[in-house]
Recover the amino acids of this structure.
């Protein structure tokens, strides 16, 4: 099954290698990987997509939680979440096909960010499926180059994956779900 | 304030505010952590730190100095630190130079990680400006060690050196213990800064997890469900592992077993958690466990795993492991729960607090398991360990049994890896924890001799014996010299069968007696002369049964380092044996141990090593 796993880590060198090493060490391919700082510059968020046996992946997630520089781990696959990916596509846009190219871009709510003599650079965001459909429809016009960011994701609703255990004042955080917000001193998940 | 932090709070360090170099800070933190012995080999990139050790010790009495033990190779230093940590429970420390010094340390670091042993390795690294240029004696330590250690630090910011070393100790000993590597470029060791005498690096996630682990309480409901399982069972069995020893929980385990009269089997690393001479002890289970331990595993209806992890040498065929049993699992590492086998009850906690809480919660529980206890006593009586007593050639088992009559479970014993290791686990008694030191998970040949050095330095008043094989001892034979260099009174018992016995056993069983690479009959090596050449005062070879007891007596009683080689049967096999990937019902007991019921055992010739 496909899993989107989000990991909050100390923003330091070597952490990414350790995290990805846990997957490669078990023969899992990482389909996409996205890393960037969070609002706290000492914390980075790694979002990765992988597929494999659920039981083994649950084990890998537990091992992630053992890494010293890992702060928090969340697996989005089993709960409500939104996921997006951004793609930049350079597509051939000759005078005679421009109208058709533009209409595909509009249908997908894409944006032309650069116009060349015979090509566009187009920006689009969406779920992986949407991006794939978009690229498929652009293919007949001639796709020259593609750069994708890989998936990023957040929980729907009030649930959050946070580096700190303090509850944010403006959110009523009810959940004490495994790997997500835990109230201090809570031990229910250990028994 | 976090738990790691609270534990290490120091009032106001007398040296706080003092200017010193990074190297001096390293040594000062070692002193602050109570380190009395470091093991290691010097070299260019670590010279500033070696110099700092020298200067620290200058003018100090031997009681306050940090003793430096120099081995023959860095791997030796690593296993010495591991032996020190295993025997004492304190963090072992070794210090090596960059490049080859660091890569020679990879094996002991991985070995410590696999057996959860707390050590700190301090590596010199080429100066920051030279890193990544293929400089002289450069190796990518951070990358190499990341895959092998509990954690690795590369100190690129000279203002962090003090906290980093202190944090390395906190990490090594907290939670599930393990090895921590600190890689320090030479120019960082030379940089000047102000010593603060306190402070740890911030590790939010880890800190929080350890804090929670230290406070975790067994809920009423969880306790109730554990005792429901126990009360519903007629044949409970405790399966104790290295976590009991690492967690200093042997006393609690013994109390728990005694309170409910539950028999105990241990893993290889759990040996010593239970007094092997106790009526409740069934000794070791698994691939080469005792027949009565393995029969008990087959017969039990409730298996209580404590600090053990259903490793493949214990549960080779997972489905058939303890087939009739409900399973409870107490472990400090959440990722071990359900990793191999599903469990009916689990509690993530260190073994000591976990067992104490369970015991408290079970105050009113009364259940009589005496028929089951009688059953396992009969198993022990009817299916004892045994060996070829008719052979004119000395058998390893009889050598160890004879030694056991002298040491009576009181010695600290280290081993290499192979047949002699299994026989030591089977035939020697261990009364206390931290007295059987062996490379369990990694199975590193060459572990025994350096580990014994470390153990003897940690426990100067104890008798320390390295039970070794000819293949294993050869791998770190250079450390014989370390014993005489420092007059460390380790007793080295070499069981020489002229070959790699365990490999030979597998070749007998699975490779039609083709001894590819494992036969050393024609080797001309004279181990006794080697011991003499290294300055041993006692060195002797025994080939005849008649000489054995008297030689062992003298060997053990000798006040300094002593060396005894016993030439043993080359064709002996270790039994019982559960073949790789096989279930307990397919246990082979060999010619000399009485099996429970005869059945034709099919050996899988295609099974891998």
């Amino acid at each position: 099954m496909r899993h989107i796993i989000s990991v909050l880590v100390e923003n330091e060198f070597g952490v990414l290698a350790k995290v990805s090493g846990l997957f490669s060490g078990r023969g899992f391919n990482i389909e996409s990987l996205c890393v960037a700082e969070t609002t706290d510059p000492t914390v980075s968020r790694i979002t990765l997509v992988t597929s494999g046996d659920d039981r083994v992946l649950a084990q890998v997630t537990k091992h992630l939680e053992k890494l010293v520089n890992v702060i928090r781990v969340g697996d989005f696959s089993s709960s409500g979440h939104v996921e997006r990916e951004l793609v930049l596509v350079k597509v051939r846009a000759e005078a005679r096909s421009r109208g058709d190219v533009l209409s595909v871009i509009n249908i997908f709510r894409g944006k032309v960010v650069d116009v060349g003599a015979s090509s566009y650079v187009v920006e689009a965001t969406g779920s992986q499926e949407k991006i794939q459909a978009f690229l498929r429809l652009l293919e007949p016009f001639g796709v020259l180059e593609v750069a994708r960011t890989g998936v990023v994701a957040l929980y729907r609703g009030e649930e959050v994956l946070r580096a700190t255990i303090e509850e944010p004042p403006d959110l009523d955080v009810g959940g004490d779900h495994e790997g997500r917000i835990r109230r201090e001193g809570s031990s229910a998940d250990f028994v | 304030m976090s738990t790691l932090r609270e534990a290490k709070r120091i009032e106001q360090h007398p040296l706080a505010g003092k200017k010193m170099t990074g190297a001096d800070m390293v040594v000062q933190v070692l002193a602050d952590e109570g380190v009395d012995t470091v093991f290691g080999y010097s070299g260019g990139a670590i010279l500033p730190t070696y110099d700092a050790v020298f200067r620290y010790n200058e003018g100090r009495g031997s009681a306050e100095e940090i003793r430096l033990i120099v081995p023959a190779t860095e791997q030796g230093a690593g296993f010495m630190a591991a032996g020190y940590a295993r025997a004492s429970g304190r963090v072992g420390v070794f210090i090596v130079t960059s490049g080859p010094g660091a890569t020679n340390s990879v094996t002991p670091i991985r070995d410590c990680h696999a057996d959860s042993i707390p050590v700190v390795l301090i590596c010199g690294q080429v100066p920051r400006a030279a890193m990544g240029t293929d400089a002289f004696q450069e190796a990518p330590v951070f990358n190499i060690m990341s895959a092998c250690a509990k954690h690795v630090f590369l100190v690129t910011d000279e203002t962090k050196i003090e906290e980093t070393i202190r944090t390395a100790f906190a990490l090594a000993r907290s939670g599930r213990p393990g090895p921590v590597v600190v890689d320090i470029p030479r120019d960082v060791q030379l940089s000047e800064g102000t010593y603060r005498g306190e402070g740890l690096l911030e590790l939010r996630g880890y800190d929080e997890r350890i804090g929670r682990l230290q406070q975790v309480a067994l809920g009423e409901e969880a306790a109730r469900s554990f005792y429901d399982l126990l009360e519903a069972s007629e044949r409970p069995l405790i399966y104790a592992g290295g976590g009991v020893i690492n967690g200093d929980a042997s006393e609690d385990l013994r109390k728990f077993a005694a309170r409910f009269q539950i028999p105990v089997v241990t893993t290889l690393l759990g040996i010593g958690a239970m007094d092997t001479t106790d009526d409740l002890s069934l000794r070791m289970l698994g691939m080469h466990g005792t027949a009565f331990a393995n029969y008990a595993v087959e017969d039990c209806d409730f298996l209580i795993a404590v600090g053990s992890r259903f490793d493949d040498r214990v549960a080779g065929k997972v489905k058939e492991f303890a087939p009739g049993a409900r399973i409870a699992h107490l472990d400090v590492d959440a990722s071990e729960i359900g990793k191999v086998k599903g469990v009916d009850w689990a509690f993530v906690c260190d073994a000591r607090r976990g067992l104490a809480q369970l015991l408290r919660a079970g105050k009113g529980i009364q259940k009589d398991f005496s028929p089951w206890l009688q059953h396992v006593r009969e198993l022990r009586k009817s299916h004892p360990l045994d060996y070829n007593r008719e052979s004119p050639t000395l058998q390893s088992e009889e050598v160890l049994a004879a030694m056991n009559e002298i040491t009576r479970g009181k010695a600290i014993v280290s081993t290499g890896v192979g047949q002699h290791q299994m026989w030591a686990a089977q035939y020697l008694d261990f009364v206390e924890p931290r007295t059987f030191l062996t490379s369990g998970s990694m199975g590193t040949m060459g572990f025994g001799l350096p580990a014994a050095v470390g153990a003897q330095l940690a426990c100067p008043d104890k008798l320390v014996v390295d039970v070794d094989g000819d293949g294993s001892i050869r791998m770190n034979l250079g450390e014989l010299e370390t014993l005489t260099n420092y007059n460390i009174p380790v007793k080295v018992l070499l069981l020489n069968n002229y070959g790699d016995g365990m490999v030979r056993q597998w070749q007998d069983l699975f490779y039609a007696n083709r001894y590819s690479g494992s036969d050393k009959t024609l080797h001309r090596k004279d181990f006794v002369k080697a011991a003499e050449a290294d300055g041993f005062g006692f060195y002797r070879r025994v080939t005849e049964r008649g000489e054995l007891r008297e030689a062992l007596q003298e060997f053990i009683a000798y006040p300094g380092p002593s060396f005894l080689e016993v030439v043993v049967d080359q064709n002996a096999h270790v039994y019982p044996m559960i073949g790789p990937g096989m279930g307990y019902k397919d246990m082979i007991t060999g010619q000399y141990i009485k099996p429970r019921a005869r059945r034709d055992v099919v050996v899988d010739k295609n099974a891998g090593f």
In short: The longest helix of chain B spans residues 74-88.
